[in-house]
Amino acid sequence: MSSDVFESLKKRYLTLRKKEVIRVLKVQDAIVSEIRDFLKGECFVEILAPIIGPVTDPGIRGAKQISFDYYGARFKVMSSMILYKQVMMTSLPKIFALSPNIRLEPLETVKTRRHLTEFRQIDLEVAHATYKDMMELGERMLCHIITKVKHRCSKELEEQKRVLKVPQKPFKKYTYKEALEILKNLGINVNFGLEIPWEAEEALSKIHKEPFWITDFPVEARGFYYMEHEDNLGILDLGILKDFDLIYPEGFGEAVSGGEREYRYNKIVERMRASEENISEYGWYLDMLKAGVPPSAGFGIGVERLTRFICGLENIWDAVPFPKVAGVLSS
Ligand code: AMP
Ligand code: MG
């Protein structure tokens, strides 16, 4: 990656006024307001996202969390508000938040062009929903946003030379196992049980012209809060989750992760032990599970990644007013 790119990130006060930057910010404004409109139309209640707390999402594949002294206790900056979405289910059955997240991503993520260390998700959760319900909602939401933004921002997208198609529903679905087979045929071997590496995800994305789902990840690849398929009949593979990723086409990579949540205290403790989590850190979360929380499902869609996809940007750092990229000391 050229060092000029990163030098220019440090001079954001000079680049923010460029017409290409202003154009993207206008499209981003339309994206966020269309998401809000869509979700309000589906009777979601917008809540204010937490920014700090004693615990946050541990399932952040190689990134580091930020923790700091909070009046003598260790607190963390939200890497995602997943645990807080679950507790919200005791209060409101359909919620979303524009949630800021911090993840100190490994230095090599600079090369993926889709990782920031500070980003935002539209993070949503629905009580008593299944992961399939959430995939259906995700498809409608993405098609709604693209349709509306294409119309509202036709001038900006034309200047951007971005030809955007409204995807065809239902989107293609592969299980994790099927995705690994496709990768094998592309000459990329991923061992069962591992997260799909970033380069492999990009290779899969490149051979698609429409967004597609990957479902049913193995338990070892994901956080303890996803629900496992139950195997009462002995037919299903064991250790498979009711979860999904949505992948953008054309090499843009992952858009969304989500799934059904485990909400039973004993199961969560079992899973935390298996993934060697420090159980003592999860005080309020475990107390909440003991007190009882409804089952739920949900997902998070990265706002900067969505902006990058809609505008057809090469780099995610062009999809945010004040980009934070691993290792770059920008404003
Ligand atoms: P995750 O919980 O890691 O699946 O993150 C949820 C969503 O947030 C992803 O599907 C992306 O859209 C977005 N996201 C995750 N990590 C990053 C990052 N480092 N930079 C930008 N967006 C991200
Ligand atoms: Mg993910």
Could you explain the architecture of this structure?
With 331 residues, the protein is of the alpha+beta class. It has one domain (6-319): Bira Bifunctional Protein, Domain 2 (BirA Bifunctional Protein, domain 2), CATH 3.30.930. Helices cover 35% and strands 18% of the residues. It has 11 helices and 11 strands. The strands form 2 sheets. It has an 8-stranded mixed sheet with strand order 1-5-6-11-10-9-8-7, sandwiched between helices. Strands 2-4-3 form a 3-stranded antiparallel sheet, with no helix packed on it. Strand 3 (67-70) and strand 4 form a beta hairpin. It is globular, with a radius of gyration of 20 Å. The relative contact order is 0.18. The chain binds adenosine monophosphate (AMP) and magnesium ion. Residues 60, 80, 103, 105, 115-116, 119, 121, 254-257, 300-302, 304-305, 316 line the site of adenosine monophosphate (AMP).
Question: How many beta-strand elements?
Answer: 11
Order of strands in the sheet with most strands:
1-5-6-11-10-9-8-7
Query: Tell me about the biggest sheet?
Result: 8 strands, mixed
Structural class: alpha+beta
CATH superfamily: Bira Bifunctional Protein, Domain 2
Cα-based radius of gyration, to the nearest Å? 20 Å
CATH topology descriptor: BirA Bifunctional Protein, domain 2
What would CATH call the class? Alpha Beta
| Rounded average pLDDT | 95
Instruction: Label the overall shape.
Output: globular
Number of distinct helices: 11
Task: Give the SSE order as H and E letters.
Answer: HHHEEEEHEEHHEHHEEEHHEH
What fraction of the residues are assigned to beta strands by DSSP?
15-25%
